[in-house]
């Protein structure tokens, strides 16, 4: 487990929990997967202004400035201790930062040396010493954090994966191989990350356990070795989608996941007939929740491997959950420590408390990857291509419309299964078109015969809808 936490990250974590839902969605819409970097940059900018204000105050009210400086460390320490995944030791960096800041401010605001130009020399010397000290402390902290992270990453990479009974092989022709088209299988390094953590938890497999609690016949606890030895290990290709994904957005990815079935683990504990919700709880008490039937009517998984390697730290190492066909906010718990059987009436998970819908099946969706918006294209045949998904239902048709004209059926790539996305391409003959702007739209139909709606809806409260379109310059 983590033991120390930067005061900036500690405060940022509390901000993430406290800000209203519209603010969260705005940050994701504007910054995408860089929303955490934007928040941290904002906190640092605020601290710079805060420090400048204290510096001005210290000229006339030295004691008040020292108290405010100490409050920074106290707030950071309180924020760190408030994290349920950490102990009291998490406050150490904030306490040290507060003590050092008070000492430095006290030193900088002491009486100047009694010489004609002593004040100027003292200020220049002190600023130089503070700059050097900050560089040493900051650099030392980064080196320590980097060393610790590299140790944990080396331990993760050395972790062996259990052998699945049915390893997944992606056929050579599965990917259409069109320039600009999203590949069928998303590399781990390119897979989107949306969660509530500002840092990347550096966790160990050793000593990690999963508890099964709540409305069960027998509460159980497993180490990861016990999970892999007792239950059948499977491998599945599954597309994940974030509910915050806008029309045309890239908060979706397709990977090969390895682990054990949630259903097998729940059957071992015995699920009470009154249970309606499976709650996944992470090491920091973050929760998701989904209907019990979704654990049994599909291959919901407790995952230890992603694309043939141990889960990356950012994607939930050492254990996470993946449930096909449900948006991640109700199903995809990273850093999983507990499965609790309960009811929807008895418990609201993290995002439901923030007014998102408690049940969140993924909607039929299609996206144009190429050509990109405002791309200039030459006359001739142009490959309009993208991906479409309707997990647990599958995609049976994708259509393209040019300038609001009739819908033309696109060519579909091979279907791998009904829980992965499907590539598609439409060969657009632009010969004879007027030069200038042209609009290209797409829509998909799933295996139930339902075609995605044209009606635009934002992600809140249960996922975006609408046809994706791009304007190109011929």
Short description:
By secondary structure, the chain is an alpha+beta fold. Helices cover 30% and strands 23% of the residues.
Gyration radius (Cα, Å) is 27 Å
Estimate the helix proportion, in percent.
Answer: 25-40%
Give me the count of strands.
Answer: 18
Mean pLDDT: 87
Q: Note poorly predicted spans.
A: none
Distance between the termini: 55 Å
The 3D shape can be described as globular
Largest sheet: 5 strands, mixed
Strand content: 15-25%
Number of contiguous helices: 9
- Strand arrangement, major sheet: 2-1-10-5-6
Tell me what you see in this structure.
This protein is an alpha+beta fold and 474 residues long. The chain is built from nine helices and 18 strands. The chain has helices at residues 7-18, 21-31, 35-58, 62-81, 92-108, 118-157, 224-230, 262-269, 328-331; strands spanning 209-214, 220-223, 233-241, 252-261, 277-282, 287-291, 301-306, 309-310, 320-322, 336-342, 365-370, 381-389, 395-402, 408-409, 411-412, 422-429, 437-446, 468-473. The strands form four sheets. The protein has a five-stranded mixed β-sheet with strand order 2-1-10-5-6. Strands 3, 4, 7, 8 and 9 form a five-stranded antiparallel β-sheet that branches. Strand 1 (209-214) and strand 2 (220-223) form a beta hairpin. The longest helix has 40 residues, at 118-157. It is globular, with a radius of gyration of 27 Å. The chain starts with 6 loop residues before the first helix and ends with a strand.
């Amino acid at each position: 487990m983590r033991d120390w936490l930067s005061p900036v990250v500690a405060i940022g974590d509390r901000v993430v929990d406290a800000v209203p839902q519209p603010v969260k969605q705005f940050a994701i819409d504007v910054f995408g997967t860089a929303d955490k970097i934007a928040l941290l940059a904002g906190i640092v900018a605020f601290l710079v202004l805060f420090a400048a204000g204290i510096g001005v105050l210290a000229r006339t009210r030295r004691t008040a400035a020292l108290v405010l400086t100490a409050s920074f460390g106290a707030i950071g320490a309180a924020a760190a201790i408030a994290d349920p995944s950490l102990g009291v030791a998490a406050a150490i960096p904030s306490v040290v930062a507060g003590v050092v800041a008070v000492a430095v401010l006290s030193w900088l605001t002491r009486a100047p040396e009694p010489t004609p130009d002593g004040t100027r020399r003292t200020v220049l010397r002190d600023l130089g010493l503070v700059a050097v000290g900050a560089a040493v402390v900051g650099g030392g902290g980064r080196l320590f954090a980097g060393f610790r992270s590299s140790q944990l990453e080396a331990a993760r990479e050395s972790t062996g994966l259990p052998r699945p009974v049915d390893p997944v092989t992606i056929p050579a022709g599965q990917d259409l191989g069109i320039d600009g088209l999203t590949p069928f299988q998303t590399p781990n390094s390119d897979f989107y990350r949306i969660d509530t953590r500002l840092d990347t938890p550096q966790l160990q497999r050793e000593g990690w356990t999963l508890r099964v609690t709540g409305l069960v016949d027998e509460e159980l606890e497993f180490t990861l070795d016990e999970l892999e030895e007792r239950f059948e290990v499977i491998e599945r290709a599954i597309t994940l989608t974030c509910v915050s994904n806008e029309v045309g957005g890239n908060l979706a990815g397709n990977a090969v996941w390895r682990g054990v079935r949630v259903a097998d683990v729940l059957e071992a504990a015995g699920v009470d007939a009154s249970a309606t919700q499976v709650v996944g709880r992470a090491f920091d008490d973050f929760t998701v929740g989904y209907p019990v039937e979704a654990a049994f009517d599909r291959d919901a998984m407790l995952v230890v491997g992603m694309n043939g390697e141990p889960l990356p730290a950012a994607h939930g190492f050492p254990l996470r959950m993946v449930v096909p066909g449900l948006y991640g906010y109700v199903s995809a718990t990273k850093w999983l420590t507990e499965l609790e059987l309960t009811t929807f009436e008895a418990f609201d998970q993290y995002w439901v408390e923030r007014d998102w819908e408690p049940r969140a099946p993924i909607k039929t969706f299609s996206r144009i990857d190429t050509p990109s918006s405002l791309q200039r294209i030459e006359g001739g045949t142009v490959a309009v291509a993208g991906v479409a998904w309707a997990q647990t239902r599958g995609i049976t048709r994708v259509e393209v419309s040019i300038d609001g004209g009739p819908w033309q059926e696109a060519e579909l790539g091979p279907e791998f299964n009904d829980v992965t996305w499907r590539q598609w391409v439409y060969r657009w003959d632009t010969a004879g078109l007027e030069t200038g702007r042209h609009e290209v739209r797409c829509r998909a139909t799933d295996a139930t015969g339902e075609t995605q709606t044209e009606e635009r809806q934002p992600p809140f409260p249960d996922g975006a809808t609408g046809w994706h379109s791009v304007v190109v310059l011929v």
